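2024-03-11 09:14:02 DEBUG pipeline.ingest accepted 1 chain
2024-03-11 09:14:02 DEBUG pipeline.ingest length=589
2024-03-11 09:14:03 DEBUG pipeline.predict start
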Amino acid sequence: MLPRGYSKCGPWLCGLLGALSIAGPCVADASAVGSTNVTVADPTVPRPPGTPCVVTLFSGDSFVDFSDHPYSYAPPGGCGTHWAKVVLEADFSVTAGRQFDRTAQLWLGGVNLYYGTTQEPSSTVSPSWHVERDLTDYSALLRQAGTGRAVLGNVVNGTYTGVIHGSARLLFYPASLRAPGALTPDSVLPLGSDAVGNATLLDTSDSPLSKTLTLPTNIDRAYLDVIAQSQSSDEFWYTCVPDSYAAEVQECGGGNFREAEVSIDGQPAGVAPVYPWIYTGGIDPYLWRPTPGVQTLNFMPYRVDLTPFAGLLSDGNPHTVAVNVAGANHYFLASATLLLYQDPHLRRVRGGLLRNTLAGQAPTPTIGDTLATDTDGNVSGAITTRLSRHYVIAGYAITSHGRVDSTVDQTVAFTDTQSFTIDASTYRQVTDQLTSVDGVSRHRIGRHLVAEYHERLRYPLHVDYSFDPTSDGGYVMATQVHQGYTNDIRREFAGRTLYAAHVSNTVDAGDTLDFDGSFNVTGHNGQQNAQSFAFRDSLGGCYRTDVASTDGVVTDEATGVGCPDGQNHVYWFTRPDGSPVSGSALLGW
């Protein structure tokens, strides 16, 4: 029997689900209340029934410098080559002391397997944390032996003493009657130039991550997984202002619009929104102890649908696929992986592009302001940045199913308001930013609409920052942050909804830092942090976990609130963590 809350499905889907098991109630381990260690509300990757084969990538490595950490990989024996699910598990820790947050990446054959950052330690807390990623869609890569590396640069000396340790493994769940083999891409190809793998530095808007490829000639669907991480001068891009305002409001220049642009042979092919990740040393390190910001430890790639280009990419000629970050201002690191589904019954798919209204729509935002400076030099008002683009990209491919017409219809919008109050006793800046994506991918065979994939994505960010003098000659810096991530997806087949899901992840954090007259930190107060992660789907799956902390100690943890029987409960083949899915109407398992 399906769980309560199940919504109506078609006969084919209901029949399939009747033969599948569900992941048992996701009950949390021992309560984290009272802990100072890393505590997050994020779900782990749900698992199918069966015993996995485990392949260790590396174990107990110490990261003390920027040296290479290579590893060799071979597919597991005893689990076949067509798996129900593949999961990456990684564990990290850093010794107590002083250390910056660091970027962590795992690679295999040039393909990124994991991307995130590390938790900063304190003088008394040695944090440890666990991350997981669903790599089932990368099964084609994992069927071949290869070489990979862990990239986690660190500095350990008399000042920065924190040593980072890490281990990682892959778990392969064999296909069975209860857990059928997943329908996965036939080719998994990196865009980076490093054959083993590393992120590509994009210094300006014109810096590309690109590769020229001669691809299989029978592509019927294509996607690109994109991660774009801000670094250096761009770390706090979400608070920056256009250059012409930077001196007046005492902020970083370069503007605050960032967006990844995907192109094929120089022609715009899609857009990947950039998430405003805040690292654990960001703004005020106490904000993120013990709960970091949204996805800080485990970035989720954004999947761009390139299926309208399938016919063009199958023509046997070399094609250049590229990613640029619009607005990059020294600098972003980027990773991109091309996923190709191939027609098993044809050696050659023919087709072409029919329409592309993204071409000619440059990613150039509109800037406005209400700033005013009075006779005393006090500044007040706001700077606004706006961009919204609606586009349609359509193409066709002659496949073994007949002619398939594919359309991506998408609106991508960015709004940002930077509000300032600056006078002799106050510097206050309030950031309100929202990145949104509303899109649908459609596939038709003849006159029949056979598949639709809808997505509604939101990245809200609010930062309220003030820096004020105190009566004793010192200063206080008060910060409040709200980060959010919501994603609603819906798959339809022949006009009927097969599956729908909602993911929500929010973090709210606040703290006040105290400084002496020489700007040395002398203490902090009022630290609070709360994270809420929720997932629901049309099959009755439900996940909800909330954690809260005060002064760096977990004060509350609740699981299953609002779920049937007060228990977290999801199907093993779903993706409650918000990891990307391919927009196939026949579901991705």
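2024-03-11 09:14:41 DEBUG pipeline.report The helical segments are 11-18, 139-142, 243-249, 310-313.
2024-03-11 09:14:41 DEBUG pipeline.predict end
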